[in-house]
Amino acid sequence: MKKLENKWMRAVLPALLIHCSIGTVYCWSLFKADIATYIGRSVSEVEWAFSLAIFMLGMSAAFGGRFVEKDIHKSSLLSALFFVVGMVATGFFIYQKSLFGIYFSYGIVMGIGLGIGYLTPVKTLMLWFGKQKGLATGLAVAGFGLAKVIASPLMEKLLGERNSEGVLVQGTNVYMMFFILAGIYSIMMFIGYLLLKKPTGYSEEQAAIGHFSYKQILKNRTFIGIWLMFYINITSGLALIAQEKGILMYIGFGAIGLVSSLTAVFNAGGRIVFSSLGDRLKDRNTIYKIIFILSIAPILLIIGFDGLGNSIAILIIALLCIVNAGYGGGFSSLPPLLADRFGINSISTVHGLALSAWAFAGLSGNQLSAFILEKTGSYDMLLYVILILFLLATLISVFVVRSNKASLEKELFVRKKKQMVS
Q1: 76-134 pLDDT, tens digit each
Q2: Which residues are registered as beta bridge partners of 162?
Q3: DSSP readout, 323-382?
Q4: Residue 48 half-sphere exposure toward CB, CA atoms < 13 A
Q5: How far apart, in whole angstroms, are the C-alpha atoms of residue 350 and residue 352?
Q6: Of 52, 151, 225, 284, whose CB neighbour count within 10 A is largest?
Q7: Structural domains in the chain plus CATH codes
């Protein structure tokens, strides 16, 4: 039994089981057109189910942080229930050809499971890994990123053969796929629920949790800066990632599948590399400066070569890889940065509030690039807008996100002590 009492069995493995399950939300692009065809709706109508799922992920994390803080076992089980029930219900409503049923099941029910499940293992990982918080969260969040790579072949196999036009030969496989996957992920998440455990001897400091003030943190200058920085990174990343295929086609680069796999690897790798690098730095906020500067550099080079053109394919691919790595690294570096600034005891609550930025970025990222292309028809203009956003995020990182080690937890303790004295 003692062999099971270690950070790999009690933190890393359950985190990967949970995150590799819920991370399959990013496989949406593989079957959204099949759902639209089967239920007789347009892809743009069906697309809102995914946007709603990401929005609910962020909002359920924002409001569920304190619940996760109190009991990781209940939260991991609740996450599994919402995610699996949502997946089964999605299959049922696809069979019933109900668009609003899909919005409810995939967007709302599964979305809640995503948010609670995303938060649940994070604090446990940081407790087990101590000074290597970045590595810990990087491993877990990498599971969320790698889920697409792992699940995509399985989903394609379950969906079945397609004709020359890319349409499924048997449309019934669309809803059956959800039923089968629900069974697989219910087992994975339940094992994660059984294994997940905080280090022996650790007990929640209920006093610290009780003194937590939502109002105080939402007014905190550092938190606002981190929220804006995180929001801009996701929005900029999504704006470019959403147009990845279109940009490659525009410059005449044919190996789109190869680049897609390459960027997926960079997305997952960035989650581990950037957050692990943060463990070696005095201030984890420096990671975001590095992410933004690395993202800005290829854009400036592309603009210097007079915009998008078929002669700078290497630069375009480099930009897509770097932005994907920074997109993933922004997620994995967030919890350790928040823990440094606001303390470990209320990290699930603070992290949940910060993830609300993901909710709004999920609605604005894709739409931003679509709006720019609709109005201007220019990928060059899209690059200019993304460049401005990354520059703004860099300024926020430098001038708004403070570099001191004072935590909100300490601020609240000092304030309460003063109140008791007075």
Answers
A1: 999 999 999 999 999 999 999 999 999 999 999 999 999 999 999 988 898 898 888 88
A2: 168
A3: HHHHHHHHHHHHHHHHHHHH-STTHHHHHHHHTHHHHHHHHHHHHHHHHHHHHH--HHHH
A4: 10
A5: 5
A6: 284
A7: 7-201 (1.20.1250.20), 204-415 (1.20.1250.20)
